[in-house]
Amino acid sequence: MEQELIINKVANSGLVTLDLEDLYHKGERVVYDLKENLFMGMILKEKDFREFLKNHDWTQYAGKNVAVICSEDAIIPTWAYMLLMIKLQPVTNMVVFGNLTELENKLFYDAIAKINPEEYRDARVVVKGCSKVPVPTAAYMEVTRLLLPVTQSLMFGEPCSTVPLWKRPKER
């Protein structure tokens, strides 16, 4: 009885898989809410805020990713955010003005910006769709923007089951 040879068509397909999950920064995500610094929940007193900044233990944010918000409907002067950044930036991995969604988008944008699109020149690329961590839709759009000018084709999903997105037109 002759044995049938099993051929791995996916391995031989020449597809390049890009897994955005690999770009996920593992650092903790936290929110810093300026409402905690407001007097009577309404105004920010410069003297009190500067005293807080001087005495606060900023090491608790070491290596973390921080989203800075103010959940109260208060007018916060721009300089207050700048002073806060001066304290947070040296100890954190990332600080953004905005919510956790904006923080996640920024983390992925920065990671995607480090991709060298030339490594994908003329490649048939599958952007992996399933991941164990939440990958924002914005990250999929950004990687598409980055790779579209250089790839031969772009697909979404898994190498064994892809959704074709784009194919470079054949030159005549």
Q: Summarize model confidence as the mean pLDDT.
A: 92
The ordered string of helix (H) and strand (E) elements is: EEHEHEHEHEE
From the spread of the alpha carbons, the general shape counts as elongated
Percent range of helical residues: 25-40%
Percentage of β-strand residues:
15-25%
- CA-atom Rg in angstroms: 23 Å
Structural class: alpha/beta
Distance between the termini: 50 Å
Total DSSP helices: 4
Q: How many individual domains?
A: 2
Can you walk through the features of this model?
The protein has 172 residues and is of the alpha/beta class. The chain folds into two domains: 1-26 and 114-172, no CATH class; 29-92, no CATH class. The protein is built from four helices and seven strands; from the N terminus they run ββαβαβαβαββ. Strand 6 and strand 7 form a beta hairpin. The chain starts with 14 loop residues before the first strand and ends in a 5-residue tail after the last strand. The model is unreliable at 6-12 (pLDDT under 50).
List keywords for this structure.
single chain; 27% helix; 4 helices; 4-stranded mixed beta sheet
What is the topological layout?
Blueprint: E1 15-18, E2 29-33, H1 46-55, E3 65-69, H2 78-88, E4 94-97, H3 100-113, E5 124-128, H4 137-147, E6 153-158, E7 161-167
Parallel strand pairs: 1-5, 2-3, 3-4, 5-6
Antiparallel strand pairs: 6-7
